[in-house]
Predict the structure.
Amino acid sequence: MPQSGSRRPRELLEAGALALGVRLDPTALDRFTRYLEELERWSASINLTALRRPADIVRDGFLDSLACDPLVPPETRRAIDIGSGAGFPAIPLAIARPALPFTLVEATRKKVTFLRHVARTLGLDRVQALHERAERLAREPAQAGAYDLALARAAAPLLEQAALVRPFLAAGGLFLAQVSALPGGEAVRALRSLGLAVERTVRVPRDSGATRHILGLRAG
């Protein structure tokens, strides 16, 4: 973060996280500070995210991702993030939960290079980034049904995300889908046909007035 405004994004993050029920210790806050610095530096040369201003990255990147944290079941042992891009939501969640193993799947090589660099720089040794397409990776015996938590932020429309994610989930696993609008009856039925049932919905208001929702979809 630029030295002149270094405190504002950090304070915004800490206050916003507390409002979500997430308490970040000084080590986590320092990691977020470094993550923001790396996002700004790398975004000058590659297209990581449409978010450019530090406050926007904190609000719509970090905090939007941390909104998933209270919904992560305590028994979660292994998580996968499909279409990780700049690392949302997996990297913020890994900072908040450094003991939880995360697998990040991304098809763009430059973004994978960034994700590996960030995990190494932040000391997130339980994060691995794979340069793969989800459709191909899901066919590997070691990956199919291997995860009890899945994430996919805007990798595709909801039903496409669900189709990508479902093969990775074990029976009883949870998919936390971040969406701008709740699915209607037809979409809910289509999700059921994929083996995913809507277990809960959480409304996440934003300062801009826009609203996001997190769907908890349980694998049958």
Notes: Residues 26-43 form the longest helix (18 residues). Confidence is low (pLDDT under 50) at residues 1-6. The domain at 59-219 is CATH 3.40.50.150 (Rossmann fold). DSSP finds eight helices and seven strands in the chain.
